[in-house]
């Protein structure tokens, strides 16, 4: 079982409009390099420190995506290079990302994470919180972040009907907001949903970005 083979197989199965984020958390740089050499340029990590270390060691044409929960006090360690932050779920975090992006003289793309799963433990905004955030005066003034889409994680279950219901719910939120929320710092184009176990279903439900780890790099 090779990383290259896994990667190419998955890539060839994805529709053209779906972006693959290779989730490389916990894996050594040598594994990431194998994927890089097979053409992969987008990598997702869930710990800022680990992502920063890999960024230092790897070629500079890689897009680094932060897919995990972000602690406000760690934003500064990724602000100079991170390409997309998937898990933004509070205005406070968005303000910190904006502040650190400004220090680095750049605009950082972000996805708002929406809570679609049944589990209490999964992070994310509910619809009221999402609307409050987008309508807030503070948000409207942030010039060094851009909301480019939404992200969600389905419940960890074998029940395909439930997963499908949750993905379709996120897709419907996306569809209703995308045309109405266009502004200088908000233009919803990306819908990040789907992992190794459920990405085909996610694509059927409208995903445009899948985050795949174990099916490429093996179990963690
Ligand atoms: C780990 C992780 C993934 C990838 O999970 P796999 O099941 O290994 O594909 C996707 N999204 C997030 C947010 C993750 O933390």
UniProtKB/TrEMBL annotation:
This is Pyridoxal phosphate homeostasis protein. Gene3D superfamilies: Alanine racemase (3.20.20.10). HAMAP family: PLP_homeostasis. The modification N6-(pyridoxal phosphate)lysine is found at residue 25. It holds the Pfam family Ala_racemase_N. Residues 3-219 form the Alanine racemase N-terminal domain. GO terms for molecular function: pyridoxal phosphate binding. It comes from Flavobacterium endophyticum. Its cofactor is pyridoxal 5'-phosphate. InterPro entries: Ala_racemase_N (IPR001608), PLP-binding_barrel (IPR029066), PyrdxlP_homeostasis (IPR011078). SUPFAM superfamilies: PLP-binding barrel (SSF51419). It comes from the Bacteria. Pyridoxal 5'-phosphate (PLP)-binding protein, which is involved in PLP homeostasis. The keyword Transferase does not apply. Keywords: Pyridoxal phosphate. Belongs to the pyridoxal phosphate-binding protein YggS/PROSC family.
